[in-house]
Amino acid sequence: MKQAYMPEPRKILYRNIETPVPEAHEVLLKIARIGICGSDVHVFTGKHPLVSFPLVQGHEFSGYIEEVGADVTGFKTGTLVTVEPAIGCGSCKRCQAGLFAQCEKLLFIGGALTGAGSEYFTVDARHVVPMPENVSPDDAAMTEPLAVAVHSVRKIPEITGQSVLIFGGGTIGNLTAQVAKIYGAGPIILVDKIPFRNTLAQRVGCLTLEPSSELEQQVRAILQGGQPAVTFECVGSATPLNTCIRMVERGGYVIVIGVYEDAPKTEMVLVQDKELQMIGSLMYTWDDFQEAVTLIKEAKVNLKLLQTHHFPFEQWEDAYTFLLDHPEQAVKVLIDVDQGG
C-alpha cells in the first residue's frame, strides 16, 4: 500500500509498504478522507513546538472497516468510522477520570504515533467510532475538530445566555461558534481579518468584525456598553490573546485553544487584576467525542460550509502549499485517500 511520509518540514514522500494485518484487538481501516487542521500546518512548516520529524500525519480522518481482529466484536466490515486519536496510558488518575488529554504519557495518532496517512491503517478497536448511516466520509473526518470545539465550550460551567467573543474564523473558531450557539450562548461575535471567514461565520449566526483600533468600541456597541462574558482565542498569537484578556468582563473566561509557535507575552497583570478564568483547552474527553457524533447525526452543525477544497492523496504537499498561499480562500482542506469512497 502507499503511505505519505514526512521526513522533514515541507516535504512529503510516498513509499510502498506492506498492508498491515490487524492484531487480535485491532481494526483495519480503508482510509477515505483526511482533514488538514491548523496544527498540521504548524507541523508541515516545522513550527509546531511539540512535534518532531520524521512522522506520518493524519489525525482527522474517516474510513471503512476492512477487517477486524480475532477478539474484536460489535463491528461490521464496510461500516464508515472515525477514530478518537488521543491515546492515554489508561491507568493514571487522569485517564481513570476520562481526562486522557491530561495524561502525562499522552500519545497522539499523527504525532508521536503513526497517523492515518496511508491507504490502510490499523488501530485499537477501543478508539474506533462508528458513524451514523446518514453521515458522509467528509463529515465523519471532521468529528475530531468538532470534538475540540465541544470540549472548549464545555469549559464554561453555564454558557446559556452568555455573550461570546471569538478570535479566529478558521475551522475551530467557526465550530466553536456553532457549538456555543447550540448551547444557548449569544450574542456571538467572531473576529477575523479574512473577509471570507467572516462571511462563513455570518452564515452560522455570528456577528463579525475585523481587527482594528476600533474593535473594543465596536464590541461594546454591539453589547450595549457591556463586555463579553466569554472569549475564545483560536488563533495562537499574542495579540488576540491579550485582546481577549483586555476585552472580557471582570471575572470572565478566556479559553485558549490556538496553537502557539512561540511562547506569547501575556498580560498577566490584567488576568490577576480582573480575576479572570484563563483556561487552556487542548483536545476532548470520550464524552465530548460522542457529543460531536450526535451533533453531526442530528445535523445541528454545518460542516459542509467549511469544506472548501479537496486534494487527491498524491497531492497532499500541494494542499499544504495552497493553504499557506491562499488563506483567504481555504478553511477545511480534505485529502481524498479513497477517491471513490
From TrEMBL:
Record keywords: Metal-binding, Oxidoreductase, Zinc
Signal sequence, start to end: none
Domain Alcohol dehydrogenase-like N-terminal, residue spans: 24-133
InterPro entries: ADH-like_C, ADH-like_N, ADH_Zn_CS, GroES-like_sf, NAD(P)-bd_dom_sf, Zn_alcohol_dh
Record-annotated Alcohol dehydrogenase-like C-terminal domain positions: 172-297
Cofactor(s) needed: Zn(2+)
UniProt-recorded Gene Ontology molecular function terms: oxidoreductase activity; zinc ion binding
Keyword Translocase: no
Family affiliation: Belongs to the zinc-containing alcohol dehydrogenase family.
PANTHER family: L-THREONINE 3-DEHYDROGENASE (PTHR43401:SF2)
UniProt protein name: Zinc-containing alcohol dehydrogenase
Organism: Vecturithrix granuli
